[in-house]
Design a protein that fits this description.
Blueprint: H1 3-18, H2 23-38, H3 45-50, E1 55-60, E2 66-74, E3 77-81, E4 87-91, E5 94-99, E6 105-108, E7 124-133, E8 137-156, E9 159-172, E10 183-191, E11 198-203, E12 212-215, H4 217-226
Antiparallel strand pairs: 1-2, 1-12, 2-3, 3-4, 4-5, 6-7, 7-8, 8-9, 9-10, 10-11, 11-12
Length: 230
Protein backbone atom coordinates (compact mmCIF):
# COMPACT_ATOMS: atom_id res chain seq x y z
CA UNK A 1 0.00 0.00 0.00
CA UNK A 2 1.36 3.44 -0.90
CA UNK A 3 1.66 6.27 1.62
CA UNK A 4 -1.00 8.21 -0.28
CA UNK A 5 -3.39 5.25 -0.17
CA UNK A 6 -2.80 4.83 3.55
CA UNK A 7 -3.48 8.51 4.20
CA UNK A 8 -6.67 8.41 2.15
CA UNK A 9 -7.91 5.42 4.12
CA UNK A 10 -7.07 7.19 7.37
CA UNK A 11 -8.98 10.22 6.22
CA UNK A 12 -12.04 8.12 5.48
CA UNK A 13 -11.87 6.71 9.01
CA UNK A 14 -11.85 10.20 10.48
CA UNK A 15 -14.79 11.33 8.38
CA UNK A 16 -16.81 8.34 9.55
CA UNK A 17 -16.93 9.89 13.02
CA UNK A 18 -18.56 13.02 11.58
CA UNK A 19 -21.27 11.35 9.51
CA UNK A 20 -24.68 10.43 10.92
CA UNK A 21 -26.91 9.01 8.19
CA UNK A 22 -28.55 5.89 6.88
CA UNK A 23 -26.20 3.17 5.68
CA UNK A 24 -26.91 3.56 1.93
CA UNK A 25 -26.36 7.33 2.02
CA UNK A 26 -23.25 6.81 4.11
CA UNK A 27 -21.76 4.35 1.62
CA UNK A 28 -22.48 6.68 -1.32
CA UNK A 29 -20.85 9.59 0.48
CA UNK A 30 -17.74 7.63 1.44
CA UNK A 31 -17.28 6.47 -2.15
CA UNK A 32 -17.62 10.05 -3.38
CA UNK A 33 -15.04 11.21 -0.87
CA UNK A 34 -12.60 8.50 -1.93
CA UNK A 35 -12.96 9.51 -5.58
CA UNK A 36 -12.50 13.18 -4.76
CA UNK A 37 -9.08 12.52 -3.23
CA UNK A 38 -8.01 10.00 -5.87
CA UNK A 39 -7.72 12.45 -8.78
CA UNK A 40 -4.68 14.33 -7.45
CA UNK A 41 -3.82 17.91 -6.53
CA UNK A 42 -4.96 19.56 -9.78
CA UNK A 43 -8.64 19.75 -10.67
CA UNK A 44 -10.28 21.41 -13.66
CA UNK A 45 -13.58 23.27 -13.59
CA UNK A 46 -15.20 20.15 -15.05
CA UNK A 47 -13.72 18.03 -12.23
CA UNK A 48 -15.15 20.39 -9.63
CA UNK A 49 -18.58 20.53 -11.26
CA UNK A 50 -18.77 16.75 -11.52
CA UNK A 51 -17.80 16.14 -7.90
CA UNK A 52 -20.64 14.74 -5.81
CA UNK A 53 -19.36 16.54 -2.73
CA UNK A 54 -18.23 20.12 -2.16
CA UNK A 55 -14.50 20.82 -2.49
CA UNK A 56 -12.30 23.61 -1.21
CA UNK A 57 -8.74 24.44 -2.24
CA UNK A 58 -6.44 25.36 0.63
CA UNK A 59 -2.85 26.63 0.69
CA UNK A 60 -1.33 26.32 4.14
CA UNK A 61 1.92 28.19 4.75
CA UNK A 62 4.44 27.34 2.04
CA UNK A 63 2.90 23.96 1.23
CA UNK A 64 1.48 23.10 -2.16
CA UNK A 65 -2.27 23.67 -2.61
CA UNK A 66 -4.48 20.80 -1.48
CA UNK A 67 -8.16 20.00 -1.83
CA UNK A 68 -10.45 19.50 1.14
CA UNK A 69 -13.81 17.74 1.05
CA UNK A 70 -16.87 18.87 2.96
CA UNK A 71 -17.55 16.12 5.47
CA UNK A 72 -20.27 17.42 7.73
CA UNK A 73 -22.58 20.38 8.41
CA UNK A 74 -23.97 21.11 11.85
CA UNK A 75 -25.08 24.29 13.66
CA UNK A 76 -23.86 26.51 10.81
CA UNK A 77 -20.44 24.87 11.02
CA UNK A 78 -18.83 23.27 7.98
CA UNK A 79 -16.28 20.54 8.71
CA UNK A 80 -13.74 19.98 5.91
CA UNK A 81 -11.20 17.16 5.76
CA UNK A 82 -7.96 16.74 3.83
CA UNK A 83 -6.45 13.59 2.35
CA UNK A 84 -3.96 13.47 5.26
CA UNK A 85 -6.95 13.57 7.69
CA UNK A 86 -6.56 17.13 8.98
CA UNK A 87 -9.89 18.74 9.88
CA UNK A 88 -10.84 22.40 9.44
CA UNK A 89 -14.10 23.74 10.87
CA UNK A 90 -15.56 26.99 9.55
CA UNK A 91 -18.46 29.03 10.88
CA UNK A 92 -19.82 31.18 8.05
CA UNK A 93 -16.38 31.00 6.38
CA UNK A 94 -14.42 31.97 9.52
CA UNK A 95 -11.99 29.26 10.66
CA UNK A 96 -12.96 28.39 14.24
CA UNK A 97 -11.46 24.95 14.92
CA UNK A 98 -8.73 22.65 13.60
CA UNK A 99 -7.57 19.10 14.21
CA UNK A 100 -4.30 17.47 13.21
CA UNK A 101 -1.75 20.13 14.21
CA UNK A 102 0.49 20.68 17.21
CA UNK A 103 -1.26 23.92 18.15
CA UNK A 104 -4.82 23.25 17.08
CA UNK A 105 -7.54 25.81 17.60
CA UNK A 106 -9.74 23.73 19.88
CA UNK A 107 -12.70 26.10 20.07
CA UNK A 108 -13.93 29.62 19.36
CA UNK A 109 -16.56 31.26 21.54
CA UNK A 110 -19.47 33.63 20.81
CA UNK A 111 -20.15 32.31 17.33
CA UNK A 112 -23.66 33.75 17.58
CA UNK A 113 -22.16 37.23 17.12
CA UNK A 114 -19.85 36.34 14.22
CA UNK A 115 -20.28 39.28 11.77
CA UNK A 116 -19.81 36.98 8.78
CA UNK A 117 -23.26 35.54 9.47
CA UNK A 118 -24.67 38.61 7.68
CA UNK A 119 -21.66 40.62 6.54
CA UNK A 120 -23.46 42.16 3.55
CA UNK A 121 -25.68 44.28 5.82
CA UNK A 122 -22.79 45.82 7.79
CA UNK A 123 -20.31 48.60 7.08
CA UNK A 124 -18.07 48.16 10.11
CA UNK A 125 -18.59 45.69 12.93
CA UNK A 126 -16.63 44.46 15.95
CA UNK A 127 -16.57 40.95 17.38
CA UNK A 128 -15.15 39.90 20.74
CA UNK A 129 -14.54 36.23 21.43
CA UNK A 130 -12.05 33.79 22.94
CA UNK A 131 -10.08 30.89 21.49
CA UNK A 132 -8.49 27.81 23.04
CA UNK A 133 -5.14 26.76 21.55
CA UNK A 134 -3.85 23.26 22.23
CA UNK A 135 -0.65 23.00 24.27
CA UNK A 136 -0.43 26.75 24.67
CA UNK A 137 -3.28 29.05 25.64
CA UNK A 138 -6.87 28.69 26.79
CA UNK A 139 -9.49 31.43 26.89
CA UNK A 140 -7.32 33.80 24.85
CA UNK A 141 -9.37 36.99 24.35
CA UNK A 142 -9.62 38.22 20.78
CA UNK A 143 -11.13 41.35 19.29
CA UNK A 144 -11.70 41.62 15.56
CA UNK A 145 -13.07 44.47 13.48
CA UNK A 146 -14.57 43.90 10.06
CA UNK A 147 -14.50 46.72 7.54
CA UNK A 148 -15.43 46.84 3.88
CA UNK A 149 -12.44 47.80 1.74
CA UNK A 150 -13.95 48.49 -1.68
CA UNK A 151 -14.05 45.98 -4.52
CA UNK A 152 -11.43 43.88 -6.27
CA UNK A 153 -11.36 41.83 -9.46
CA UNK A 154 -10.16 38.25 -9.32
CA UNK A 155 -10.16 35.45 -11.88
CA UNK A 156 -11.14 31.83 -11.32
CA UNK A 157 -11.24 29.20 -14.05
CA UNK A 158 -10.78 31.82 -16.78
CA UNK A 159 -13.62 34.06 -15.59
CA UNK A 160 -13.18 37.40 -13.87
CA UNK A 161 -15.35 38.47 -10.95
CA UNK A 162 -15.84 41.79 -9.20
CA UNK A 163 -15.94 41.00 -5.49
CA UNK A 164 -16.49 42.99 -2.32
CA UNK A 165 -13.41 42.93 -0.12
CA UNK A 166 -13.81 42.72 3.64
CA UNK A 167 -10.81 43.06 5.94
CA UNK A 168 -10.85 41.64 9.46
CA UNK A 169 -8.29 43.27 11.76
CA UNK A 170 -7.57 40.86 14.61
CA UNK A 171 -5.95 41.67 17.94
CA UNK A 172 -5.24 39.37 20.86
CA UNK A 173 -4.69 40.76 24.33
CA UNK A 174 -2.18 39.21 26.78
CA UNK A 175 -3.88 36.85 29.20
CA UNK A 176 -0.93 35.43 31.12
CA UNK A 177 1.99 37.16 32.87
CA UNK A 178 4.70 35.87 30.50
CA UNK A 179 3.14 37.60 27.48
CA UNK A 180 4.89 40.91 26.87
CA UNK A 181 2.93 42.08 23.84
CA UNK A 182 -0.29 41.65 21.92
CA UNK A 183 -0.55 40.07 18.49
CA UNK A 184 -2.16 41.78 15.49
CA UNK A 185 -2.90 40.49 12.00
CA UNK A 186 -5.40 40.84 9.17
CA UNK A 187 -7.70 38.36 7.47
CA UNK A 188 -9.47 39.11 4.21
CA UNK A 189 -12.66 37.83 2.58
CA UNK A 190 -13.72 38.34 -1.04
CA UNK A 191 -17.51 38.23 -1.26
CA UNK A 192 -19.66 37.81 -4.37
CA UNK A 193 -22.06 40.76 -3.96
CA UNK A 194 -25.26 39.22 -5.35
CA UNK A 195 -25.20 35.87 -3.56
CA UNK A 196 -23.25 37.11 -0.53
CA UNK A 197 -21.00 34.04 -0.78
CA UNK A 198 -17.32 34.20 0.13
CA UNK A 199 -15.32 32.99 -2.89
CA UNK A 200 -11.80 33.49 -1.52
CA UNK A 201 -10.21 34.19 1.83
CA UNK A 202 -6.81 34.65 3.45
CA UNK A 203 -6.90 33.77 7.15
CA UNK A 204 -4.76 33.07 10.18
CA UNK A 205 -6.70 31.35 12.95
CA UNK A 206 -4.43 32.29 15.86
CA UNK A 207 -1.01 33.80 16.59
CA UNK A 208 0.41 30.27 16.60
CA UNK A 209 -1.01 28.85 13.37
CA UNK A 210 0.13 29.27 9.78
CA UNK A 211 -1.55 31.60 7.31
CA UNK A 212 -3.83 29.95 4.81
CA UNK A 213 -5.37 30.84 1.47
CA UNK A 214 -8.84 29.41 0.89
CA UNK A 215 -10.67 29.17 -2.41
CA UNK A 216 -14.25 27.86 -2.38
CA UNK A 217 -13.96 26.08 -5.70
CA UNK A 218 -17.32 24.26 -5.64
CA UNK A 219 -19.09 27.47 -4.73
CA UNK A 220 -17.39 29.26 -7.63
CA UNK A 221 -18.15 26.40 -10.03
CA UNK A 222 -21.85 26.50 -9.15
CA UNK A 223 -21.92 30.26 -9.65
CA UNK A 224 -20.31 29.93 -13.08
CA UNK A 225 -22.81 27.25 -14.10
CA UNK A 226 -25.83 29.16 -12.82
CA UNK A 227 -24.63 32.30 -14.60
CA UNK A 228 -24.52 30.52 -17.93
CA UNK A 229 -20.78 29.87 -17.91
CA UNK A 230 -19.05 26.61 -18.75
Amino acid sequence: MTVRSFRNLACLAVVTAFLVSCSSTHRLYMESLRLAFRSGPEKSLADIQQSKIDLMQLELGDRNPAFLALAYLENDQHKWVSADHAVFVFHHDKLVQTSGFAKDVLSTSHLDTNPLVDIASANTTTWQYTIDIANHEYGLPVESTFKKDGTVTKSFYGQTFTLDKWVETVRTEPSTPYWDSAYDWENSYLVEPVSGNVFYSEQTASPFTEAMVITYVSRIARHIKNSGGL
